Structure formats: structure tokens, C-alpha cells
């Protein structure tokens, strides 16, 4: 289980996260929503150690992570698909995928077949450079790379942003499959209300670096929900 308690973080002298509390339960999909610029990506970067936790605690499976560097958090079982994908454009698809195994604790160096089955288009593109792929294909590549190490927690930062509807559906299908397997917890940053309501077990809404609303998709007051997401 992931638990954040009174977490503060930001950039330089700017404080973005202001006492954030959040939980991601085992095997569940937890969604984080909010308008642009409210701190969602800052939270994800703080969870991965790319930004320093200035105050509060970050516990993953009972272990305090706040002082750990990103590589050690990945080794602890956290996978990350950042906003913008951040694949290596000069490396081939296969090379990008194999990099995901570097964080694996098992020592296995063969890419897992069940992950490739979730993203079948990638197997036919092994020799192509990552930079030659479409945006949607790059997103699938980043997603598959993150799953290669068999993480217990997967952080997805707006995985459907700017990609075609058919690939959005592919990503939804993969998230629902992972959810059904019950072996991985997912924290998903997403803007689409329909996507979130179809996938989420629990939803948090952020505004100005604090959580302003939370609940299950069925329990949330939709008028308040839409108000906090309106531009």
C-alpha cells in the first residue's frame, strides 16, 4: 500500500504540494484529477524522487521512501510512465523495452511475453527507433517498459493525453486487465471523467496543491466534482 501523509514539495523556493494526504490500496486503481497546473505531475515526480520531499512521509509497503533516490524507488517496486513518455528516441523499440528490465529484482533479462501480449503492435516494431513511432505507439512503449520489471505500484501520468481514440481504448483495456489481475496498484493522473469513472476504484481531486475532494466514483457529488475540474 502507498500512503502519503502531509507531503510538501515544489520547485526552488516555490511550494506546490501543501500537506498532501493520499492512499493507494493494494490491487486498486486510484485516480488523481484536477485542472492543469494544480500539482498533479509535481506529486508524481515527488513520488519517484525526482523532486525532494520537503516535509511529510511517503510510505510504500511499510517502507519510508522520502529520502530515497529514484533508482532505489524503482528497485523497491515502483514503475513510472511520465507525462510526455520520455522514451529514448535513438534506441530501438527492443532496446527501450530491455531498459525496463534494469529495475527488475529478479535478474531476468528476457522481456516478459505477457506484457508484449498487452501491446502486440510493439513486437512488430522491435527494430525501429523509438523516435520513429507515433505518439500513441510511444505511449504504449513507455507503458510496456514500465511493466517489464513487474512493479507492485505503477504511476501513470496522463497516459491518454494527445493520442488517438483507438489507442486510448487499448490503454483502458490494459489498465482494466491489470486491475482484474489484482497484483499491481495503480495511481493514474487523468483528465477524462469518462475514462476515470470506467477504471477507478477511488478518486482524488487536487486544487492548488491540496486535495479538495475524494471518494469512489459512485459516491462523489458530480456537481462538486465537475466544479473542481472546470477551467
TrEMBL record:
GO terms for molecular function: ATP binding. Gene3D superfamilies: P-loop containing nucleotide triphosphate hydrolases (3.40.50.300). SMART domains: AAA (SM00382). Keywords: Amino-acid transport, ATP-binding, Nucleotide-binding, Transport. It holds the Pfam family ABC_tran. It comes from the Bacteria. Residues 2-231 form the ABC transporter domain. Belongs to the ABC transporter superfamily. NCBIfam families: urea_trans_UrtE (TIGR03410). This is ABC transporter ATP-binding protein.
Amino acid at each position: 500500500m502507498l500512503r502519503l501523509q502531509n507531503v510538501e514539495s515544489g520547485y526552488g523556493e516555490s511550494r506546490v504540494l501543501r500537506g498532501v494526504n493520499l492512499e493507494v490500496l493494494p490491487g486498486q486503481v486510484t485516480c488523481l484529477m484536477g485542472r492543469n497546473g494544480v500539482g498533479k505531475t509535481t506529486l508524481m515526480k515527488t513520488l519517484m524522487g525526482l523532486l525532494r520531499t520537503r516535509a511529510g512521509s511517503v510510505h510504500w509497503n511499510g517502507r519510508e521512501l522520502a529520502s530515497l533516490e529514484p533508482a532505489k524507488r524503482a528497485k523497491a517496486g515502483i514503475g513510472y510512465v511520465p507525462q510526455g513518455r520520455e522514451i529514448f528516441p535513438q534506441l530501438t523499440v527492443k532496446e527501450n523495452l530491455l531498459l525496463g528490465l534494469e529495475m527488475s529484482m529478479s535478474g531476468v533479462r528476457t522481456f516478459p511475453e505477457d506484457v508484449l501480449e498487452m501491446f502486440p503492435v510493439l513486437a512488430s516494431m522491435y527494430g525501429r527507433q523509438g523516435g520513429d513511432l507515433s505518439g500513441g505507439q510511444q505511449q504504449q512503449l513507455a507503458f510496456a517498459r514500465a511493466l517489464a520489471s513487474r512493479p507492485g505500484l505503477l504511476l501513470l501520468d496522463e497516459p491518454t493525453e494527445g493520442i488517438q481514440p483507438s489507442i486510448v481504448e487499448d490503454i483502458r483495456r490494459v489498465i482494466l486487465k491489470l486491475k482484474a489481475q489484482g497484483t499491481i496498484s495503480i495511481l493514474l493522473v487523468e483528465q477524462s471523467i469518462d475514462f476515470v469513472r470506467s477504471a477507478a476504484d477511488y478518486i482524488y481531486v487536487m486544487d492548488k496543491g491540496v486535495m479538495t475532494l475524494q471518494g469512489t466514483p459512485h459516491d462523489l457529488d458530480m456537481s462538486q466534482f465537475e466544479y473542481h475540474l472546470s477551467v
